[in-house]
Design goal:
alpha+beta; four-stranded antiparallel sheet; ATP binding; single chain; 4 strands; ATP-binding; transferase; ubl conjugation pathway
């Protein structure tokens, strides 16, 4: 993490020697994303749920990270679920892309790893979708909640998993 932060500080120092015409729009956009991520990752690490761990394979690429959720209650207690998160260049105007890497039988996660979580939707009918005011902390807490209070059998993405649960529900 510190490596990218240091890099951003050096870039700020060099800005005075460059003209804005030499920097392309995509460079500025990535730079804005990276600036947000330095701040958000620090906040995330300070407020991480005890059932979650974040891993950055490359500390210079805060836009690609893995999350491990280990629920300590509910149906999935004792399981260990891996998620891959990629933060696009247009962040925070668009949500991060998240995929579940662990095969799981879950009403809100398909067998191919797609996730049904309203805050990950760019546009949501119910108004709870992505907004520029949301952060990575919201995403991690939302993914963690999929295994407890946001477990939704009434409006599932994986209909077969939801029907199976309702049919064979343990009292």
């Amino acid at each position: 993490m510190l490596t990218l932060a240091s890099k951003l500080k050096r870039e700020d120092g060099l800005k005075g020697s460059r003209t804005s015409a030499t920097a392309s729009d995509s460079t500025r956009r990535v730079s804005v994303r990276d600036r947000l991520l330095v701040k958000e990752v620090a906040e995330l690490e300070a407020n991480l749920p005890c059932t979650c761990k974040v891993h950055f394979p490359d500390p210079n690429k805060l836009h690609c990270f893995q999350l491990t959720v280990t629920p300590d209650e509910g149906y999935y207690q004792g399981g260990k679920f891996q998620f891959e998160t990629e933060v696009p260049d247009a962040y925070n105007m668009v949500p991060p892309k998240v995929k579940c890497l662990t095969r799981i039988w879950h009403p809100n996660i398909t067998e191919t790893g797609e996730i049904c979580l309203s805050l990950l939707r760019e546009h949501s009918i119910d108004g709870t979708g992505w907004a520029p005011t949301r952060t990575l902390k919201d995403v991690v807490w939302g993914l963690n909640s999929l295994f407890t209070d946001l477990l939704n059998f009434d409006d599932p993405l994986n209909i077969e998993a939801a029907e199976h649960h309702l049919r064979d529900k343990v009292s």
